[in-house]
Amino acid sequence: MTLKNVFLILFLSLATCPLASISTYSQTTDDGSVQNNASSGIPSTGLVTTDQLLDQVCTHLKEQKAFELQMDITYENVLDSGKKVQFSAYQNVMVQKPNLLRANYVGDNDSQNFYFNGQTFTIESPLEAVYATKDAAVKTIDEVVDLIDERFGIRIPLSNLYVNDPCTAISANIQDSVFLGYNMVNREPAYHLLFIGEERDFQLWVKDGDIPLPLKVVITYKNLPQAPQYTAVLSNWNFSPEFSPNTFSFQPSEDAFGIKVLPPLSNSESK
Predict the structure, then answer these.
(1) How far apart are CA 181 and CA 169, in angstroms?
(2) Does the pLDDT value for residue 166 go beyond 60?
(3) Would you report the helix, strand and coil content of the chain in percent, each value rounded to 5?
(4) What's the pTM?
């Protein structure tokens, strides 16, 4: 049996819960399925694989016509000396499908706001009081996310969550998956999953309950020196937002200066 087919057998061992020994077991039912049982208040989810749980998360997000959320982000950089350091950021995201997106990002190294109103997109650097607006020539969030990445080298953190079908992009990079336990995010219990890819691994914490909300994501860039990590804690999900008419349209301040948005230099141009 490959890791990708391992069932979510709910257990806690001394390695994950040093204060107590948790008794767990599984039994085979008449139809050959595995029924999991555990004590000490660990919830029973029935027969659910890691892939099925990820699919539940993606399906729920796919069904939402509008939502907003907040992210607390930490990310690691490796210095020329080889030392690994950590920086922080936070981001507010507002989504109204199929063609409205706004992301306000404030970080240690950069602060940017992104607006897409279905016709134009704008990137604003409020600290420098500069912005760039460009005709999008695309009509959906999916298309503008691809456009700004491929043509301008601009990536909105965790943009896979905002597109119409989150699992399409995410699942394509998964080779194996593992259920790690029933662990905490901001003192809230969640299912802890590990997804293994060729270039990066990512961990996902999913809220236990009727709505399978992603609560935390950790991406490990394992092929880079020192394997730096990117962590985002997701909170204040709102699936019934009341956006104002101007939420997704950029209005420059009087002292803001408009500039052109240029594609990044190619390797040959940058030498």
Answers:
(1) 25
(2) yes
(3) 15, 40, 45
(4) 0.79
